[in-house]
Amino acid sequence: MNKYIIVGIILVVLVALLATNKKLIETLKNIYKIEELRKRILFTLGLLLVYRLGSFVTLPGLSHAALESWTNNFAQDSSSLMGLLNIFSGGAFSQASIFALGVMPYITASIIIQLMGIMVPYFRKMQREGESGRRKMNQWTRFLTIAVLLLQAPAYLKTQVPPQAIVQETGFIITSTIILIAGTMFIMWLGEKITDKGIGNGISLIIMIGIVARLPQAFLQEFMFKLEGNMGSIIMLIVELVFLALVFMLAIAIVQAVRKIPVQYAKRIVGNKQYGGVRQYIPLKLNAANVMPIIFAQALMFIPGLIWQGGAFADIQSFWYNFTLAVLVIVFTYFYTAIIVNPQMMADDMKRNGGFIPGVKPGKSTVTYIDNIMTRITLPGSIFLALITVLPAIAMKLGISQSFAYFYGGTSLLIMVGVVLDTLKQIESYLLMRHYDGLMKTGRIQGRY
Fold first, then answer.
1. For the chain, which end, N or C, has fewer CB atoms within 10 Å of the first or last residue's CB respectively?
2. Pick the CATH number of 230-408 from 3.40.190.10, 3.40.1160.10, 1.10.3370.10, 3.40.1050.10
3. What is the Cα–Cα distance from 249 to 125, expressed in whole angstroms?
């Protein structure tokens, strides 16, 4: 069956589903009626289109014929660590694009600055300076991103770009390094503009769009592979899609899961007005660390895979690679949760505002109580992250193609779920402020009420 016919069938099915969903059509009309929201969405889509177009612009001085042959071989070896990076960049990594390094250097710099904010007093002081401190830390992050690019760009050009594809060798490394640095900085600028004038978090959307860009091709390859088999293969494809939907539902439930700690505020009367005397809650997230433990763990796993080529740690389907990765994810989940959740600060804020947890003494007892709860809820959260991390390898072992298996878990799944939920919250707030129904009338998007 011709692949264009298959794509046409898929589009017809999507249009039919859209036409039968009156609620969704009405919501889209409401979104279009809000001028500010409409402009922000169109602005975001426009900049994301610019990013995707730039991902196909190759570095000058390369032979397109030799590069295309290398790209095809690279895509087939998606079980390697470099293949994993290629999927996160939306294919720009293997195409030697001007956006080949994507925003990964910026993420690396952000993680380093975050850790320095904990360990270095100068950066810790900046974190407490509010908006001015945030601007200073952003500036430091940009400078550090350039420093990381000065190391990563030449390494990428010397190790990942095939020598036979380089047509103009004179000054190629220098000029291409400058272009790669400019490409990453331009992506950062696009992300900041989306955050300021668009909808959602710009950097997160850029990462997500690079991942999602590989989904249609991966699904089409899986569909064609199953189509070549017998009727049992088609049934297996349906089972795969159902399982993928269940994984997404579980990821959404875990990302939004919170443990509410009741806090009672003392009643006080100032003049003729009464303040306090109400019960509120501190929401402690089951997965407070979000996707950061997976990023930390995978960054460490890159090191042995690059040093010992061909070993167990170079194959992301091997048992020892996935076992070590899962253990690292659990360890880093506790580590990162301890960094971002400060029970002492929570207890001090409650005491300062006249609040207390019913049945718990203020002060040290409150700190211990919150710390014990965080320790207990972090365990299932860390196990869930470890399971999500190794799910792609399990899917590959069960016969799912490598490119499609990456969407069953790992960083890509959590990034997609987190970014989509965050963007939906912003759109939901615009709709509710204009007295329209939200995206889902019976939905439970956090922040809706």
1. C
2. 1.10.3370.10
3. 40
